[in-house]
Specification:
- This is ABC transporter substrate-binding protein.
- Keywords: Signal.
- By secondary structure, the protein is an alpha+beta fold.
- It has a single domain, classed as Tgt2/MlaC (Nuclear Transport Factor 2, Chain: A).
- It has nine helices and five strands; from the N terminus they run ααααααβββββααα.
- Helix 2 runs antiparallel to helix 4.
- The longest helix has 23 residues.
- It is globular, with a radius of gyration of 18 Å.
């Protein structure tokens, strides 16, 4: 599951490796995804020394650069699926708040795995009269097969701004994956159990290249 999340989140930023500079444009979803990506990875490169010294810095970068362009509340409700109506109203605000921090942590953890991948985006399509579009791309990895990805982006009826709410890798949706993971927990134990799981992940420290460290430790045994 972590490799799935890693692919999705890395894909947000890797356009910086394959595009020219673009102005951030919340009115065009294709330009938005790419410009946010460039800003995020430029900042990571500029602060690389600080990140290596303190990986927790990745949380701050993700919150400031990525999260403003993600409709985390819409995504949070989509993850609940049919259980949305069974969650007490007083718990929904708490759930959305924790889900926001959970996403920040997920992005920060995934960015700690970055290792020279690049992304090639397909040509932009028309957005005339549309309220939702799919931004498609391919992740290029020097040592692994290409991975097809897609970003689901929707236009807010309140602000007319575009924000991403889901990401898909090889046909697997992040929202669907989390909904599947939490469905039985919601059914059996309720929203408090899901909140506990998310908080547990949030509280874990961010590590860089955690898989590499684990592999080295195992080989040394």
């Amino acid at each position: 599951m972590m490799k799935f999340f890693t692919t999705l989140i890395i894909a947000i930023g890797l356009t910086a490796s394959s595009m020219v500079a673009a102005q951030e444009n919340a009115e065009n979803p294709y330009e938005l995804v790419q410009s946010v990506a460039m800003k995020t990875f430029d900042r990571m490169k500029n602060e690389q020394a600080a990140i290596e010294q303190d990986p927790e810095r990745l949380r701050q970068i993700m919150e400031q650069e990525l999260l403003p362009h993600i409709d985390y509340q819409f995504a949070a409700f989509k993850v609940l699926g049919k259980h949305f109506r069974s969650v007490p109203k007083e718990k929904l605000a708490e759930y959305v708040k924790v889900f926001r921090e959970y996403l920040i942590t997920t992005y920060a953890v995934a960015m700690g795995y970055y290792d020279n991948q690049t992304v090639q985006f397909e040509p932009a399509g028309s957005i005339d009269g549309k309220k939702a579009v799919t931004v498609r791309a391919v992740v290029k990895d020097p040592v692994r097969p290409d991975i097809k990805i897609a970003f689901q982006v929707r236009k807010s009826s309140n602000t007319n701004q575009w924000k991403a709410y889901d990401m898909v890798a090889e046909g697997i949706s992040l929202i669907d994956a989390k909904r599947s993971e939490f469905e039985s927990i919601l059914r059996q134990d309720g929203i408090d159990a899901v909140l506990a799981i998310m908080r547990d992940k949030i509280e874990r420290p961010i590590e860089l290249n955690a898989d590499d460290k684990k592999a080295k430790a195992e080989s040394a045994e």
